[in-house]
Amino acid sequence: MDVYSKRHIESNQLYKQHERAIDSIHSAVQREIPRLIHEFDLSIQEMNALNDFIDDRATLFRFLRKNNYSLPTALSLLLDTIRWRIIADIDNIRIPSVADEFLAEPLVYFHKTDKVNRPILIINLAHLPKAPAGTDVSEYLTPLVIFVLETARLLLWDTCQERMKAGVENPMVLETLVLVDFKDANSLPTDIGLLKSFVTLLRRYPGVTGTVNLINFGWMYQGLWQMCKLVLSNEAKAKVNFPKLKDLPVLIEKHDIVIDLGGMDTYQWSLSTDAYYTKYRNGLLPTPNISRRSSSSSIYYDTHNSPLLNMTSTGEKLTRPPSSFSLYNTPLASLSPVASHANLASVAKAYSNLSLQSKLGNGMPPRFRTTIKQLGDMMTTSSSSQSTEEQGIPSWMLSEKLQAIQNNSNNSNPRRSPNWFLNLFFKFENTARHITLRLIKKMIRYRGTLYWVIACILLRNGVQELLQQVLLIMMEIMLKPTAQNAVGMRSLLSLTTGQMTL
Fold first, then answer.
1. Which backbone phi and psi does 426 adopt, to 5 degrees?
2. Does residue 375 fall inside a structural domain?
3. Is-contact 354 395, C-beta < 8 A?
4. Bigger pLDDT: 286 vs 362
5. Does 86 lie in the same domain as 115?
6. pLDDT band at 481 (very low <50, low <70, confident <90, very high)
7. Which of 38, 61, 91 lies at the terminal end of a domain, its last residue?
8. How confident is the model over 33-90, as pLDDT tens digits?
9. Number of domains in the chain
10. Do the bridges between strand 240-241 and strand 176-181 make them parallel or antiparallel, or are there none, so unpaired?
């Protein structure tokens, strides 16, 4: 037990040491509240729930400790967790929204504390109901897991506040003690996807579950434990113990252990006698009539698309995209005023009608865009070029025409221009690029002969005779375009009639 007391004292010392960092995280998250309210159209009850979550300093410290006290990393993951809570409507996962079969039997409940004042969470797997046929087990059990974890978070923060008000030394209680009873447990789910879902949920509540004690863990569950070890981190596996019933008094006072676990407490759980679920998770919040959508500015959440326009059936309604600001209130793009929403919607429609090639090219420098376009034209077939011509003049060509007119007007009299040297340099650059493109085009056109020419250069010493033969080959190709595929071997034989160097 000395190990747990020591860890409790160390946790309180670390909390005091990083109080300024906790204040910084709290202030940074508070600055994000107006943007979250505007983005998700939160109700008053949801705003109050969000403020209560942000005021939970124990949770802020757990995020900080989980990320090695890195303030930017902890803040980004905390903000993403807040967005996940809003999108998944975590504050409304309460008693009415949890399946009745989970609360009909003493499956999972909180009762008393251990010797270091950690709340005890008891899980009786014998009362675990089976998922209905055709129902995903992970989706079936996820609301219950969130329901329990959210109750644990609120219970821990209330315990910390009560101990601080009472002036108790080392008041911060940051984790729970979990007792998992495998007695009479029947068909337990063995899907590794279910375990991965649980691990993902636990990352939203870092450090809430402390030591996990597996009781009555027989040899028939060794396969289940081996599968759990595949998805648990080394830190999580170190917190798992396999005590006997006679070892529990080392952790918990004997009069605080229920009779089913070998103690003296005669408490029998039921929802009517539960003191924690009815206190923290009773009743639902009013849900606004909007659809929750995540923003593309999320760092940790697995969504990246957010709509720019919201078109209604009666007319066009434009809303500012939720990703106009970063997670730290940094504008991602200029927010210049517009004359009306209808004008902006028309611009958005016109932009959506552009081809993907035009959209990608609009952000490139003109000269670089021209080079890429010309290279792409050379690599396309004649059939694709004909279909492009039938579609009309593309936007990139109009842009290049305007750019060429502007360049010609600027370079019409380089001596009078103050930047005549730069104009001369740009002209040289354009000439060099034009020559390079012509060479690449010739190489692509005569690629059937280029390989044999290189082979002759590697095998032949007579340079003068080699050049003469190359000119003859080129003339033959120009006069007989259809003979490009057959000229290779005959040309190699005609070029290698002299001495060779191998």
1. -65, -35
2. no
3. yes
4. 286
5. no
6. low
7. 91
8. 999 999 999 999 999 999 999 999 999 999 999 999 999 999 999 999 999 999 999 9
9. 3
10. unpaired
Q: Do residues 108 and 121 make contact, with C-beta atoms less than 8 angstroms apart?
A: yes
100, 218: one domain: yes
Say if pTM beats, i.e. exceeds, 0.85: no
Angle subtended by helix axes 463-479 and 487-495, to nearest 10: 160
Q: Are 118 and 163 in contact (CB under 8 A)?
A: no
CA-wise closest residue to 178 among 146, 215, 128: 215
What is the tens place of the pLDDT at every residue in 12-31? 999 999 999 999 999 999 99
Which of 252, 257, 264, 267 minimizes the C-alpha distance to 114? 252
Same domain, 152 and 12: no
Query: Is 262 in the same domain as 204?
Result: yes
* The pair of three-digit structure tokens given for residue 278, joined into one six-digit string: 């009815």
Domain that holds residue 20: 3-91
Please indicate, yes or no, if residue 394 is contained in any of the structural domains.
no
Q: Is residue 15 part of a domain?
A: yes
Measured CA to CA, the distance from residue 288 to residue 53 in angstroms comes to: 19
Let me know whether 195 and 264 are in one domain. yes
CA 302 to chain centre: 4
Q: What gap in Å lies between CA 136 and CA 141, rounded to an integer?
A: 9
CA-wise closest residue to 280 among 138, 415, 146: 146
Contacts of 39 (CB under 8 A, 6+ apart): 295, 322
Which 3 state secondary structure label does DSSP give 297? coil
- pLDDT, average across residues 180-197: 86
Cβ–Cβ contacts within 10 Å for residue 182, how many?
18
How many C-beta atoms surround the C-beta of residue 277 within 10 A?
A: 19
| Joined tokens for residue 495 | 């070029």
462 within 8 A of 499, measured Cβ to Cβ: yes
The residue ranking higher by pLDDT, 287 or 273, is 273
Tokens of residue 406, six digits: 């502007």
